[in-house]
Structures are given as C-alpha cells and as structure tokens.
Amino acid sequence: MSDLSTTSSPRPVSLFTVAAVFVGFALFLGVVYYFYTSNRKPADARDGVRSTAQRREMLVELRKKEAELTTKYGWVDQKAGVVRLPIERAMDLTVQQYGAKK
User: Fold this and answer.
1) What pTM did the predictor assign?
2) How confident is the model at residue 6 (pLDDT cuts 50, 70, 90)?
3) E strand or H helix at 9
4) Is the pLDDT of residue 3 over 80?
5) What's the burial of 49, exposed, middle or buried (CB within 10 Å: 0-12/13-18/19+)?
6) Phi, psi (5° rounding) for residue 24?
7) Cα 15 from Cα 91, distance rounded (Å)
8) Are 44 and 50 a contacting pair, CB within 8 Å?
9) Closest Cα to residue 71, out of 57, 85, 60, 86?
10) In the chain, how long is the greatest CA-to-CA distance?
C-alpha cells in the first residue's frame, strides 16, 4: 500500500518535450490550414472578373440590356405567340382590361 503522507516533487519537463508539443501543434494547424484553403478559390477566379473597372463595365452593360428589355417590344416565343411589351404599355393594357370590367 502506498503512503500518501510522503510527497515527492514533480520532475521538471524537459525542453525537448515542450518543443515537440509546439511542433506537433504547428503541424496540426498547418494541415488544417492547407485543407481549408485548398477548397477555396478567390472571388475573381469564380466569375472571371479581375478588376473593379471590369465589374463596373459589366454592370453598365447589364443595366443597358435590362433597360432595353423593359422599354422595347420583342418576341419571347414567336411560335406560341408570346410577346414582350414595354412596361408602360403593359400597365396601360392592364388598367384598360380591369377598368372595363367595373
């Protein structure tokens, strides 16, 4: 049976053990960082845009196309007879249609 009344002083931790713990922790963090960043792509690689000027040009072009689609007539499906109307004309037709029912 062991005697609990006697206390022994703990052994000091060697410098090698401390260094090994830090190296192991650093390796673990390195592996986690590698796997975390290898799956991520930078924003410019996803959409093909590399500068603010290019983004601005694309936005201007997009808004120009949207304005054209909302202000001009055009076919959506010519075989089915579906047309695209300007928004103002579509609102006028809707008011005429629902105004006539009252």
Assistant:
1) 0.42
2) low
3) none
4) no
5) middle
6) -65, -40
7) 81
8) yes
9) 86
10) 105
